[in-house]
C-alpha cells in the first residue's frame, strides 16, 4: 500500500493542492512549523518584549500593585461590612412572619414575609431608611396576622363548643320518650 501521490485528480491518496505535508509554504505568506515570525512582529521564545508591557510591570494608571496591596481609598468598604456605616441592619422579622403564616393566617402572612425579605435587599443597596421602614411594616403585618389568626381560632372553638352543646342537648331530649 502506498501513501504517496498516485495520480488522478483527487481521492484519498492524492496530494493536497499546493504541496504535501511537511513542505514549507511559499515565501511571503505566514510562517511554517519551526519558523520564527519576522522581526518586529513577535518575540522569540524566552525573550521579554521591550519596556511598556509585560507580566512584571505596573499596569497603566498605577493599578493596585499586586498581592497584599490595598486598593486606593482604604480597602474593603465601611467598617462592619454594612452600608449603614458600621450600624447593624434592622431585624427583618422573618421568623415571626413565617410562623404566623404557617399557624395563623396564610394571606396576611405572605405579605409579612414579602415585607421582611425587603429589609435585607434594601439594606444591601444602601437604602437605610427604606430598610427600617420595611422592618416596621413587616412587624406590623405579622402582628396583624397573629391577631387575625387568634380571632379565627377563637371563632372556630366557639363554633365547635356551640355545636357540641346543641348535639348534647338534642341527644338527651330524644332519650326522654
Amino acid at each position: 500500500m502506498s501513501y504517496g501521490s498516485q495520480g488522478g485528480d483527487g481521492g484519498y491518496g492524492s496530494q493536497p493542492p499546493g504541496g504535501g505535508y511537511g513542505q514549507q509554504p511559499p515565501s511571503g505568506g505566514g510562517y511554517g512549523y519551526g519558523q520564527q515570525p519576522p522581526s518586529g512582529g513577535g518575540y522569540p521564545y524566552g525573550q521579554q518584549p521591550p519596556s511598556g508591557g509585560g507580566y512584571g510591570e505596573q499596569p497603566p494608571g498605577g493599578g493596585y500593585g499586586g498581592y497584599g496591596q490595598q486598593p486606593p481609598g482604604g480597602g474593603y468598604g465601611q467598617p462592619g461590612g454594612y452600608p449603614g456605616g458600621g450600624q447593624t441592619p434592622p431585624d427583618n422579622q422573618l421568623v415571626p412572619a413565617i410562623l404566623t403564616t404557617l399557624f395563623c393566617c396564610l394571606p396576611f402572612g405572605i405579605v409579612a414575609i414579602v415585607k421582611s425579605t425587603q429589609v435585607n435587599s434594601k439594606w444591601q443597596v444602601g437604602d437605610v431608611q427604606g430598610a427600617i421602614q420595611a422592618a416596621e411594616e413587616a412587624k406590623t403585618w405579622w402582628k396583624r396576622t397573629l391577631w387575625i389568626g387568634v380571632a379565627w381560632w377563637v371563632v372556630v372553638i366557639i363554633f365547635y363548643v356551640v355545636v357540641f352543646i346543641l348535639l348534647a342537648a338534642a341527644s338527651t331530649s330524644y332519650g326522654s320518650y
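The two ends are 117 Å apart (CA to CA). Residues 74-80 have pLDDT under 50 and may be disordered.
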